[in-house]
Here is the input.
Amino acid sequence: MRIDVSLAPGEIAANDVAQAVVVVIDVLRATSTIAVALNNGCEEIIAAESIEEAINIASGYTRSDYVLGGERRGLPIDGFDLGNSPSEYVEARVRGKKLILVTTNGTRAIKAYDNAFAIYAASFLNADAVFRTLHRAHRDRDIILVCSGQDSRFCMEDALCAGLLASRFGNELGATLTDSANAAATLFEVHRDSIQQALAASSHGAYLIGVGYGHDVEYCSHRSEIDVVPKVFDRRVIRRARLEPEE
Here is the structure.
C-alpha cells in the first residue's frame, strides 16, 4: 500500500488515479457536512460544481424529495434550503431526502477525480471510520488523499486531516508514504493535541469565524465522532459505503 497526498487541488492529475482509491478532504466544511448529513439519515448527496448545475439537477425531482444546500465564499446561497454548516443538517431536515450540494471547493474536488477506482470523503469527524474501511476493502491499492484546498491553494485544515490518515497508515499498517504524505503526517504530529486551535488559526478558519461560523470551526475539529463513510457511486452520487469484502 502506497499513500500519497495532493496538498493542493490539481497537484495529482485526474488521469493518474484510475487504479487508485481517492479520499477527498474538505474539513471546512464540505466533507464534514456530508458525513453529518448521511449520519442523520440523508438518502444520498448529489455533488454539483455550480449553482446552475444544482438547480438543473433539482428540476428532475419532486420538490418534496430533495433539499438544496451549499455555499459561496462560505455563505448560504440565496434561494437554497441550507448552507454549508454541519449544524443545519439535522435529522428533521434531511432524513429520507436527497441533498443536492454545491460548495466552493469540496464538491468540485469530488467530481474532478471521478475516474478513480473508488472515491470516499473524509474529515476529522469520520476519520477513524474511513481508515477502517480503507484498511478492510482496499489494503492492496494505492490511496491518494486529496486536499480540496481553498481557491486552488494549499490550506492547513485539509493537510492536517490528510496527515492524520497518512500517519495511521504508516504507523499502524506499515504503508509506504510519499514525501507529501510524510510532510502531512509530520504537520499533523506537530498539531496533534491542538487541532481546534490550528483550524481557528488557518486562513479559512479565521474567515469563517469572522463571518459568524466559529461554532463550525470548533465542531469540525472533533475527531472520529461519526461512524459513517461517504462513498461516491455513479460518478457524483454520495451514499453511505456498503460493507465491502476484503480484496
User: Anything to note?
Assistant: The chain has a mean pLDDT of 94. The CA atoms of residues 24 and 110 lie 6 Å apart. Residues 2-239 form a domain with the putative 2-phosphosulfolactate phosphatase fold (CATH 3.90.1560.10). The two ends are 12 Å apart (CA to CA).
